[in-house]
Design a protein that fits this description.
With 321 residues, this protein is of the alpha/beta class. The chain has a domain at 6-171 and 205-232: Rossmann fold (3-Layer(aba) Sandwich). The protein is 38% helix and 18% strand. The chain has helices at residues 15-26, 56-62, 77-80, 84-103, 139-158, 179-188, 209-222, 240-250, 276-279, 289-307, and strands at residues 6-10, 30-35, 45-48, 67-70, 110-116, 162-167, 169-171, 193-196, 203-204, 206-208, 226-232, 238-239, 256-259. Strands 3-2-1-4-5-6-11 form a seven-stranded parallel beta sheet, sandwiched between helices. Strands 7-10 form a two-stranded parallel sheet. Strands 8-13 form a two-stranded parallel ribbon. Strand 5 (110-116), helix 5 and strand 6 (162-167) form a beta-alpha-beta unit.
């Protein structure tokens, strides 16, 4: 079991990164952040930089970092079809640059790579386990899988302590894209119809952001870190039909729901992750969908009040418990 005392968060200005920084600081961890935007929280040690021009190893050594969390890179699966080389560089190539930089240190820190359940692609069974063969459906998924493979190779060849985390459908306050954000925005807006872009029987494994960041830290402390992968999933399958109804309930509104008739290229039909590997390490992601949606809807209402000029609470004032 490790104890994280000093962490470096790559991509700490993004949705997952901001919550991760907050969770680490709540545990008393010294946190440094690399982001292309402003500081994710007040009084955080942060560097505004593009990772492609940064020596991550030097930065980690200067700050005596024992754990590097990498939640940077591209997360645009549809966009990767039009820009596959850019996507490959942002994910796989940047991972290699980071690993090479860390390899030069006498005592490399643990490297935790934020991957995606998209690597599974077309699946033969549910729930999806880490040992199931991947079959990516988009250039984005290919680049994330390639990055995972480099993570594994760097442990095998160089002894780099590292692991990859396959995040399923993460949601929560502060997110400004993806299905739950868009549907919540619609539910709180004027109108009589909630439009879901996917068919009603499409399913996903939705995981609340607070659970995700706690699991990331717990796995960093408890996992062997021999280049292995872990699902970060709830283990619960939710259809678009049930999601739409749950969001309307959370937003306390009534609308007719209209579903799409096809999926975007690169999107799978059904997804739910097996949780046996994380559970064996005592890691649980157990916030119910109803609870997570209620918290997210409360945040969204606050954003509406702020946009309207009233005194709504800021994003990070909304507690997740």
């Amino acid at each position: 079991m490790r104890t994280i005392r000093s962490a470096l968060v790559l991509g700490g200005g993004g949705f997952v990164g901001r919550w991760l920084v907050r969770a680490l600081r709540a545990r008393g961890v010294r946190v440094a952040v690399v982001t292309r935007t402003g500081p994710p929280e007040p009084a955080v040690d942060w560097l505004a930089s593009d990772l492609s021009s940064l020596d991550v190893g030097l930065l980690a050594a200067e700050r005596a970092v024992d754990t590097v969390f990498d939640v940077a890179g591209s997360a645009d699966a549809p966009g990767s079809f039009g820009a596959p080389l850019e996507d490959l560089d942002a994910n796989a190539a940047q991972t290699i640059r980071t690993l090479e930089s860390l390899r030069g240190l006498s005592a490399p820190p643990l490297y935790v790579y934020g991957s995606s359940a998209a690597v599974y692609g077309r699946v033969a069974r549910l729930p999806i386990a880490e040992e199931d063969p991947p079959s990516p459906l988009s250039p984005y998924a290919v680049s994330k899988l390639a990055a995972e493979q480099y993570v594994s190779i760097y442990h095998q060849v160089h002894g780099q302590p590292c692991l990859s985390l396959r995040l399923f459908s993460v949601y929560g306050p502060g997110q400004r894209k993806q299905a739950i954000f868009e549907l919540t925005r619609q539910a709180l807006a004027p109108g009589h119809v909630l439009r879901v872009n996917a068919p009603a029987d499409v399913t996903r494994d939705f995981v609340f952001i607070d659970d995700v960041t706690r699991a990331m830290i717990d796995l960093a402390e408890r996992a062997p870190a021999h280049g292995e992968t872990y699902n970060v999933a709830s283990g619960r399958e939710t259809s678009m039909h049930d999601l739409a109804r749950a969001i309307l309930d959370a937003c306390e509104t009534h609308k007719t729901v209209a579903f799409g008739d096809s999926l975007r290229p690169g999107d799978p039909h059904r997804y739910v992750g097996a949780t046996d590997r994380t559970a064996a390490l005592g890691v649980r992601l157990d916030t119910s969908l109803d609870s997570g949606l209620a918290i997210t809807a409360e945040w969204a209402r606050g954003q509406q009040r702020r946009r309207a000029g009233s005194s709504g609470r800021p994003i990070w004032a909304i507690e997740s418990r």
